[in-house]
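The following block was generated as part of the benchmark described in Methods. Ligand: 6-O-phosphono-beta-D-fructofuranose.
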Amino acid sequence: MTAPTHIRRIGVLTGGGDCPGLNAVIRAVVKTAILQHGIEVAGIEDGFQGLIEDRVRPLSSTDVSGILVRGGTVLGSNNRCNPRRHHVGDDQDGNPVHRDVTDRCVEVAKRHRLDALIVIGGDGTMAAASSLVEKGLNVIGVPKTIDNDIVGTEISFGFLTAVNTATEALDKLHSTADSHHRVMVCELMGRNAGWITLTAGVASGADVILLPEIPFDMEAVAKYIDERMHKGPGFAIVAVAEGARMRGGEQVVARMVHNSADPVRLGGIGQRVADSVAKLCRVETRTTVLGHIQRGGTPIPADRILATHFGYHAIQTLMNGGRNRMVVRQNNIFGDVDLLFAAGKQRLVPDDHPLISAARALGTSFGDGVPHSHYPDPKPAVVV
Ligand code: F6P
């Protein structure tokens, strides 16, 4: 197939927090574009920052050989940059000053003769891309995030690798919890969407799963753990999303990144839960914060395949005349939706999700007091 005459050269960038599988998408985009359609590809470094600063380099199919299995992104990424609100410094009082540099981005894209941009990113990156779309650039999005919270697609690449990492961590915590008769609390990523915590929690058989979508009651968590410690196996695993919060309470903020378009960074709820459990149940607790380990490392095969599909579909969508679309997977079928449909929104875990129902049926607590004790008082010994 030869390229439609209006598409001769495209740019590709990775925006937002990195995630396993970014390189697999870049490889699929570059190889499909060059080998199948004969169009040139330019790589833009560090997300939109590279477009603003004109850091654009040609990518050949040799450049992307061997990157399929590598974590991170060979292009670099940036989760602080939005062309519409670009941080240009601080005022005298130390407040960040932002400027709209969309025109500059369009200028750089024109200078490099980019007929379209492939933007690999999450909801924030898609929202940031909207300013370029308004100025006439054709943007094709590829949904990326370990959080799996992008609207319009049932899955984003990177999620399954993060779940794998989180599951392995929870599995390891099981054996040490058992040996020491402790409660091990593991804090996992997921700001407003608890997909990683739910999926890894169920996969590893965590006893308590605390999600941002289901505010928890500390007394209910303590009651459940108390029974498990004193009438059950004598150890417990709590998987808690960084965005989980107590009923009527707030999310725990670790820090603010003031030059970021999305400045809140969460963290600390795991330690709070562990401290409360120790106090209320009079048991020993320990906290593990898995953090960025969930974003790093080589993608598992399922993510390499998903990323390859997405990269290939992004180019096919473009070559079929698509404008401002985001590639998605729904019911296992690849397709595309309006790019701006996903921008700035989040796909949360519904509280009646089948996995939640299954876990509840198995006695898992979601900290809302729903399942009751699975450890009835031992029956008195029968005396004959
Ligand atoms: O969006 C992905 C995510 O991993 C969130 O779950 C997490 O809160 C955030 O990124 C951390 O971002 P940073 O790299 O700025 O610490």
